[in-house]
Amino acid sequence: MTLALAAMGLAAAGSVAYSVRTYLRQFKPLVIRDVRCSHKNKPKAGAKPFPAEYSKAVAQVAMAAMQATPLAYDYYHAPADTRGDLPSLRRRLAKTLGAYLRKHVDPKGRVTNLDVAFSVNRANTCAVMATVSCSAGGGVVVCLPATRDNRNWATNLRMAPRDAQMWLGKGAVGSVHSGIVLAYRSVRQRIYKYLKCNASPRLPVLVCGHSLGGGLATLAAYDITRVGYSAVGYSIGPPRIGNAAMVDDFNKKVHGYHWFTTEGDPITRTGPRHLGYRHVKGGIIVNVENAEKNTCPAKPRYSPCRTFTDHPRARGPMGRDPRVCQRQHTRATYEMVITGCDDPSRQY
Question: What CATH number has the domain spanning 51-340?
Fold first, then answer.
């Protein structure tokens, strides 16, 4: 009896020790210089950097990456016997990204390298890293995906602020959105590895994303700047992800971050202000109705949707129509706006 109790006690102690060790491991700092590169494919010495100021061509490079990224998510969730191997996914992603670049940005645009990172925790996200070369600029592009399933919604709803230095490392300031920082950490090591092997110190890294991916892109831009790289960013419909201290530090360190919101996008109003969350600088409000008419207004009208059914135009003879507000947040809507406006006005 005594031996049985002792054995049970040892087993319980071992289980507790394992749980504590696993929990603490997530706070272990990731050191980028320790990464070993299986192959290197850095941009050529004469490559043009992505500019910090707003550029329609660079925005279209970001849109190209956002169009390709859902393929990685679909691969991750496809049945094992139908999804094929990882090299074939990389070829499909490179083909999709390259085709968009050649059609919308530069006929000679090309993708010289590409990799994919998949999360290993309940965040259920991924990241696409590519090295591109085109007339808009050259360098590494990091794209993160939008909300696609219930686990992504759980990430969105985990809004409790968390200490940025504890979760990101030395040099981070303030507090950040707990769900988004956990999702970002799940792919951060692979992003670090790709940057170590493929990024050039003189060329800014272009980070981009839509919706949840926009929040992840904001955090990625802040994090990779913290470890020594420069970053520019284009995100569409991102939520708020940090408090005032984090946002002020972001604005000092990241030069050239641009995020878009339509006049009726409710997602950019998430990240509750009563919890201290704020938006970073660089917000651009665009008008969907005028973009459909192929015009770009100097001062677009601003009518926020606080929910998917709260837009003034979301009321019809049958009551509220949530499709009006949902359309304000889709990637296709933002793509139409960005490609229709050469120089959107800063209004946020």
Answer: 3.40.50.1820
